[in-house]
Structure formats: structure tokens, C-alpha cells
Amino acid sequence: MDLDVFVATHQGEWARLDALAGRYRLSGEEADELVTLYQRATGHLAKVQATAPDPALIGQLTGLVSRARSAVTGARTNAWQDVARYYTVSFPAALYRSRRWWVPIAVISLIGTVLIAWWVGTHPEVRNSLIAPDALREMTRPGGKYEAYYSDRPASSFAAQVWTNNAWVAVQCLLYGIALVPVIVVLWGNVFNLGLGIGLMASAGRLDIFLGLLIPHGLLELTAVFVSGGLGLRLGWTIIDPGPRTRGVALAEQGRAIIGMAIGLATVLAVSGILEAFVTPSGLPTWARISIGALAEVAFLLYALVLGRKAAAGGEVGDLAEADRADLQPVAA
């Protein structure tokens, strides 16, 4: 066998096989092509070993066949690769794909917060019906409960407490989503409490102080809660409208995506808790604390809407990898 002619004849096939083996997602035609080229390459390797055992070519083909076999059989990546892929591809793609749920919820919630704050802040009779005047003065005075809340405990333990509380709110939104109404109740409670605090501090002429304490961590924290609420409502709506899939398949897919997103949201809330414990009560100027919070929020939105859009455009849906999903019978459209 003329080795040079053999290599020149099949070099194109080997290059194509190497390219296909390096891709994460393949179309049906590409997958078929991968299998065909892999089978040919194994034959080429056997032929070279039997008739022209050139060490360099055997090494090249052995490596190629090994990579192709991993692609064909679905070899698993290591745990660190899975973690990196989750935070750079799966989670941002899921955030982007669910934006039509959590962005409207964020807008509606913020409008509701402003209305409640205005109602409480401009109507003394409303404030008096909600809280006694003496208690109101104690809460809103300099060094009162609203301000002391952020600095009366060690920062590390406070961060853990904040993360636990916020994570529980997010979990409630995710778990209660299948029933729809409880998610709305949780979101309403969050909006009401926020609007109440803003309105009470505004009535005492200390709105700037309150916002200076709230914004550094609150932007990111509230966004995570809005995302959780949107995902919960999306899960509940899947029962009503599963689309072309069966209801069981639709719920399974959406449920898996939500479980995956819960990990990412817990990370976001951990960052928010760190900001609330270490930045909000710090001695930094108000503009610096607000700037840090705003930068964290902008970074998250870019992560969700820019990186997420890129990942979604590549076909990522935020579900389990195909190799980890159960095989299902086709469903008519």
C-alpha cells in the first residue's frame, strides 16, 4: 500500500470526522455522518496497522478514533466541565428563554411597589391603620429598626441569614408554581412589604437614607425573586397549555429546567446576601454603595440577556443534556 496516496485520499474524511467529534450538538444528518466516518476511520486504522505500520499515522488515527468513539457513545465530561458549562451556557440560556415571564413580572411588581409606597407615604390615615405612631417613629428615626437591621449582627452570620431567607422565598415561588395562585401571593407579599417600607421612610423624610441602604443589594435580590416568580408561573401555565407535547412530558421538561435554575438563582442570591451584609452597612459613601449594586445588576442582566441569547441561539434550552434524558415516543404536532 502506498502510504502517501492512502493519506491523501482519506485526509479530508479524517478532518471532517475530527470536526464533527469536537462539536457539542449535531443535527440528525451530522450524527449519521459522524457514525459513518467513525466506522471508516476504524477500518483505516486496522488497515494501516496490518499493511503499513507507520507509528506517526497510527498515533494520529488512534487519537482520532478515540475522540470519535467518545462522541458516538456520549462519553461524559468531568464534573468541573459540567459546572463551567452550566454557568456559561445552560443557566444563562434558561434565563434568556424565560425572559417573557420574569421581565413582565419585574415591571408589574415595581409599578405595584411605587403605588403602595405613594399610598402609604401620602395618606396618614393609612399609616395609622397599619402601625402605631410611636412604633412608626421608632422604626424610621436615625438608628431605628430600618437602619439597625443591616448592622446589628456580625456580617458573616447576617449574610447567611439573608441568603437563607431569600432562597426560601425563591424556592416557594418555584415549588408553588404548579398551583399558580400561591406564587402570586408570595410575590404580592414581597411587593407590599417593599412598598410599605419605602412609604414609611418617605413619610418621615428619610427616603434617601432608605434607598441608600436598599439599592446596593436590593436590585439583584429583587431580580432573583422576580425570576423565581416567573419560572413558577411558567410551570403552572404548562399544566394549562403544554403545547404540542403531552402534559407529562411538558411538566417533566419544565420541572427539570426549574431545578437546574434553582442552583443558579441560589448563587445569585448568595452574591446579593454578601452585598447586603458587607456593602450595604459599610462606611462607603452612598454613591459608591449604590454604584456597586447597580454594577451587580447590570452584570446580571448582561449575563442573562446577552450571554443567554448567544447560548439560546446555539440551541441550548437549559434542560438536561440529551444523553441524560429518557427516550420518548414521538408526539404528533
Automatic annotation (TrEMBL):
Transmembrane spans: 101-120, 167-187, 219-237, 257-275, 287-306
Keywords: Membrane, Transmembrane, Transmembrane helix
Pfam families linked to this entry: SpoIIM
Source organism superkingdom: Bacteria
Transmembrane recorded as keyword: yes
InterPro entries in alphabetical order: SpoIIM-like
Protein's recorded name: Stage II sporulation protein M
Taxonomic source organism: Streptomyces sp. Y1
Lineage of producing organism: Bacteria, Bacillati, Actinomycetota, Actinomycetes, Kitasatosporales
